[in-house]
Amino acid sequence: MDAQTLQYRFGEHTSVVRLGERELLGQFAERTAFVIWDENTTDHLEALHHLPNTILPSGERAKSLATVEQLLDSFVTHALERNSTVIAVGGGVVCDVGALAASLYMRGVRLVLVPTTLLAMVDAALGGKTGVNFAGYKNLVGTFYPAEQVLIIPSVLQSLPQREYLAGLAEVIKTAMLGDPELLELLEQNPEATLERRPDVVRELILRSVAVKGLIVEQDFTERGGREWLNLGHTFAHALESVSGFEGWTHGEAVAWGMAQALRCGVRAGITDATYAERAIALLRRYGFRCELPDLAVDALIDAMQRDKKNRAGRIRFVLQRRPGETELRELSPELVRSVLATQS
Ligand SMILES: NC(=O)c1ccc[n+]([C@@H]2O[C@H](COP(=O)([O-])OP(=O)(O)OC[C@H]3O[C@@H](n4cnc5c(N)ncnc54)[C@H](O)[C@@H]3O)[C@@H](O)[C@H]2O)c1
Q1: CA–CA separation, 168 vs 172, rounded Å?
Q2: What's the pLDDT tens digit per position in 47-97?
Q3: Which of 17, 55, 96, 197 to mutate to test ligand 1, by most ligand atoms within 8 A of the CB atom?
Q4: Is pLDDT of 281 > 70?
Q5: DSSP 3-state helix, strand, coil percentages of the chain (rounded to 5)?
Q6: pLDDT at 311 over 80
């Protein structure tokens, strides 16, 4: 199948997304480039094996300023110059931390992201948010620095554990709810093919999700209004992750749970169409996502939401939907949220 190209303008930057096969990597044969691998992606993509590189340990713990410093050290050791290219190959963690280091070195070198998880393909690699965790907060420190190219090679997903694939699917469902009713139908009508990762379906999911996210970010690159929609379900998800100590739930599972809560709260507040809420929750369940309250204290979840760093002036703001494609930011009272959560236990 031919490679497909999408181009976006994010602030001052142009980002080109190419979706295709391993040939996409041929362009680096002669260039001065440095590769950042995740330890689980080093066997992939032989076309980059000749380049100088460093390997990061897998997982969220690599998203730290210490890793950024280690990467900057490697760039100096390998004498990277202003015109050199940093290529980050991995999931959202390697994309976020690699992009942050690339944005800082010499005030910004050329950046290419090669996302290797579904989540990174449909979300993390596109849109220019870089970051590391700091002082116990996720993504507290970062920059806006879109990649010059995002090279998506869906066949690398073959080795991705199913749970990680599902984490990406939660974001695909979110994207469909935000901006692509046809994608929502495709997910409803093709659960087996989607879960079995049939290549034509996976390619379609990725292309459509990238198109929705690309458009939202183009309209609001620096998150002053509009881009926040991408946080649908996230206020609930962050509270769940914090109260459960980041154990037992992947971020995607937490987001799926959070979207179900946002739909229920929206119905209770008279905003969300009840039939749409039922339909979307049925879809989340069809993909195996838990939509009910786990064995956690409701008060602890509400407290965590009130501490969310995205709140303004101490009020909890939620991304809610009226129906597919109709999204808005609303404040809800803690009492309403508490009553919705409490009726599930
Ligand atoms: N910048 C953004 O806009 C943005 C958006 C969403 C999420 N994120 C960030 O992304 C991160 C989560 O990303 P993620 O879910 O990709 O997690 P991840 O990067 O930790 O990858 C998940 C796991 O899959 C492994 N892996 C990666 N590719 C593989 C492959 N092809 N085969 C086998 N194993 C593979 C990794 O080693 C890791 O163990 C979070 O830190 C989140 O904050 C950023």
Answers
A1: 6
A2: 999 999 999 999 999 999 999 999 999 999 999 999 999 999 999 999 999
A3: 96
A4: yes
A5: 50, 20, 30
A6: no
Tokens, residue 188: 């409803």
Contact 35, 51 (CB under 8 A): yes
Between strands 110-115 and 149-152, the pairing is: parallel
* Alpha-carbon dihedral sign for residues 79, 81, 85, 87: positive
- Helix, strand, or coil here: 96? helix
CATH number, domain of 226, equals 1.20.1090.10
Q: Per the structure, how many domains does the chain have?
A: 2
Task: Determine the structural domain holding residue 168 and report its residue range.
Answer: 162-345
Q: How far is the CA of 210 from the centre of ligand 1 (A)?
A: 16
Placement of tokens 């991408």 in the chain: 230
CB 167 within 8 A of CB 251: yes
CB atoms inside a 10 Å sphere around CB 203: 17
